[in-house]
């Protein structure tokens, strides 16, 4: 139960990240966060302890208490807006491209795939989300220092920068809980 995902909001109720119930309880018990109820009321840790768990709530047992795992918490002092960028890395390109060669569609692990520059570096291309795709080694070798059109390839889908907001769709987001949808809709992500 302590690894259950919990949505963390900033002080003005913007989604920042998703954390674990363990971390949420630590934030609550130190006064750094409050529980956000489905009615959008905020409760301190002491008030949350007094609230009996509902029939659908996930519960953590202590020697003296039966505590519901909160679904959403809001930080007390943090009001900066969330960041919307995903760090460019080999692993994140593979995740964006679903571990699939973007030329032939073959799936593979990180040992079978490589990164390919759509416009090769030797021809003025840059290493960016919009110019790099996952490619199997045979396709990458056949393409060489040519563009996909020159090599007779067509990309399965365009190379784009992924969204990283915790509630954004796609491979960088977890499954959305119903309690979180209202915060994603407010941000224009759902």
Shape, per Cα inertia axes: elongated
Which stretches are poorly predicted, pLDDT < 50 over at least 5 residues? none
If strands are numbered along the chain, what order do they take across the biggest sheet? 2-1-7-3-4
Largest sheet: 5 strands, mixed
The proportion of strand residues reads 15-25%
Structural class: alpha+beta
The number of domains: 2
Report, as a whole number of angstroms, the end-to-end distance. 27 Å
Number of helices: 6
List the helices and strands in order. EEHEEHEEEHEEHHH
Helix content: 10-25%
Extended strand count: 9
- Average pLDDT rating: 87
Radius of gyration: 22 Å
What does this structure look like?
With 190 residues, the chain is an alpha+beta fold. It contains six helices and nine strands, in the order ββαββαβββαββααα. It has helices at 21-29, 45-50, 90-96, 137-143, 148-151, 181-186; strands spanning 5-9, 15-20, 33-36, 42-43, 59-61, 66-68, 72-75, 113-117, 132-136. It has a five-stranded mixed β-sheet. The chain is elongated and about 70 Å long. 23% of the residues are buried.
């Amino acid at each position: 139960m302590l690894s259950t995902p919990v949505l963390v909001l900033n002080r003005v109720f913007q989604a920042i990240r998703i954390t674990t119930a363990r971390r949420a309880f630590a934030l609550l018990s130190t006064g750094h966060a409050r529980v956000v109820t489905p009615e959008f009321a905020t409760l301190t840790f002491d008030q949350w302890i007094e609230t009996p768990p509902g029939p659908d709530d996930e519960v953590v047992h202590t020697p003296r208490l039966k505590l519901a795992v909160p679904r959403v918490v809001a930080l007390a002092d943090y009001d900066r807006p969330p960041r919307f960028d995903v760090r460019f890395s080999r692993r994140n390109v593979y995740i964006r491209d679903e571990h699939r060669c973007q030329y032939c569609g073959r799936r593979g692990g990180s040992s079978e795939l490589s990164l390919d520059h759509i416009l090769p570096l030797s021809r003025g291309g840059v290493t960016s989300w919009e110019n790099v795709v996952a490619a199997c080694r045979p396709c990458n070798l056949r393409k060489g220092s040519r563009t996909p059109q020159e090599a007779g390839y067509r990309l399965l889908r365009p190379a784009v920068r992924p969204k990283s907001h915790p509630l954004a769709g796609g491979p960088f987001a977890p499954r959305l809980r119903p309690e979180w949808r209202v915060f994603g809709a407010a941000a224009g992500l759902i």
